[in-house]
Amino acid sequence: MTSALMPIYYRIIPDRPEAHTYKVVCTISQPAAEGQRVWLPAWIPGSYMIRDFAKNIISLSASCNHQRIAVDKLDKQTWQCAVCAGPLIIEYEVYAWDLSVRAAHLDITHAYFNGTSVFLAVTDQENSPCEVDIVRPVGPRYATWRVATTLSHKAAADYGFGTYHAANYDELIDHPVEIGDFALSEFSVAGTPHAIAITGRQQADLPRLTRDVQVICEQQVQMFGELPDMDRYLFLLTVIDNGFGGLEHRASTSLLASRKSLPHTNMTQPTDDYINLLGLFSHEYFHTWHVKQIKPQEFIPYNLQREVHTHLLWAFEGITSYYDDLGLVRSGVISTEKYLELLGKAITKVIREPGRFKQSLPESSFEAWTKYYKQDENSPNAIVSYYVKGSLFALCLDLYIRQQTHQCASLDDVMRRLWTEFAKVNRGLSDDSIKTIVAELCGKNVDTFFQTYLEGTQDLPLTELLAQVGIDLHLRTTMSEEDLGGKEGDKKEYSIFSLGGRFANDAAGVKVTHAYDNGALQHAGISAGDVLLAANGIKLSKDNLRTVLAPYRIGDRLHIHAFRRDELMEFDLTLVSAEATTCYLKWQTDGREKAKTWIAYKDQK
Questions:
Q1: Do 146 and 168 belong together in one domain?
Q2: Are the C-beta atoms of residues 291 and 248 closer than 8 Å to each other?
Q3: Is the pTM higher than 0.90?
Q4: Alpha carbon of 266 to those of 160, 200, 217: distances in Å?
Q5: What's 539's domain CATH number?
Q6: Residue ranges of the chain whose pLDDT lies below 70
């Protein structure tokens, strides 16, 4: 008979909020006889980039029987403690000044952390139960602070300081913690308590946000048929002046958004910023099934000490990105017209970037660690987003299945089978798992479709597939740098010329941030980072580019003065016709009726 695993005990204190440092104490009752080794993750699940969280450990020491013992650092994230009969106590200080959803943050206004940033893993004891004592910081300004987390309570009241429990290290690091004076709204979905905790100064219409998020969650639960096993679900939202992002966890999600994205009591129709925020809620909640439970086989279990490559991020992020906006229209929080606008913007993003012809979706997924998460000035020419193009492939796959089965099956059925046949039996997906299910639903070989549009780099068959559900796809030229597509716009504003790049304001003129392959900028020898000063003797800025170009015709040459670093340079640029890379979608005469079985929308709220 094997003895029960002894818990690993952690105590975390927001020790010096003004200095942004946590104090953490880790107690190991039964350290390894040869000396205990501990480590900190290099990355956090859901964000596929090596982040080296151990760099934020300021100091670390160990003791045994009240005596200090030696600790050797073996590599960037691993420590070896000297032999100790136990208990072994490791104390360390963590610097926390990363205001994102990925790491840890602490100041006098709040505390937030992911376990991957603050909790050491104990080598060969990662399956041991864990107990965490979350301690209130000292001082009167923290007297009203509360704790928001989905860690299981042991000796802590709801939203209270005290002791929490996790079955093992993997569970411990999958429940982020927010501490502070957050706004709170609670509701129920499928009989399970849900809550939204908002950190940051705001004047949100919290009842409206709660109603909208609730129906989005209900729609997703209805599609899958059930929630994964959990006691409660929590949305942790931090609002700041400008920011956007989310990170999924098994019973919660961390969200970051701009203050202007929140609804307010005077809002009559949802703004674009609010719709984007609801899409973020929808996206991360969908991950509760799809990536937290339905996983690629490479993620079972996670190896958090190095990169873990998979070809399937297009499925986990792309399919989720498809369903996040689809969930908004299906739940009735946006209109079908707004949904078509969102689709048009996604199509525009993809067709504006030459990299779509050079990298397939599986390649984009596999290279996320080195390319997608480490983008530079050449990225639009070299890569494609497995989020955005992945969502459009999911759209095509959904419509393709409906077409092949005469509306008897859809991508919804694929998702439900992934849930029951993979997630519920802890079975990971292989590269061909989705294709196999699609072939079974369609009753035919679907290799050509997947080889051409998933594994290949040619454009997706959006025009043909959207037409079958009553939607016509149109392309036009851009109207301005801020034109993201999705709308027909004013034809008088359509661009005649294309410079083939992206720009940003600069004190001296206009800075080139990206130069597209085979564009006018690149042909002239102008590169990303160059600051354009003047064209034919006229001073340039980002705001006056269109005005300066207005008198010229296609084929005319402009003499450009620019700075490259600190050197003044001259270029001759030939104006070329603008390409039609901006998409908008329009209903056919009977389009809404054709789309009903696909969108399955309710009346707009």
A1: yes
A2: yes
A3: yes
A4: 34, 20, 25
A5: 2.30.42.10
A6: 1-3, 601-605
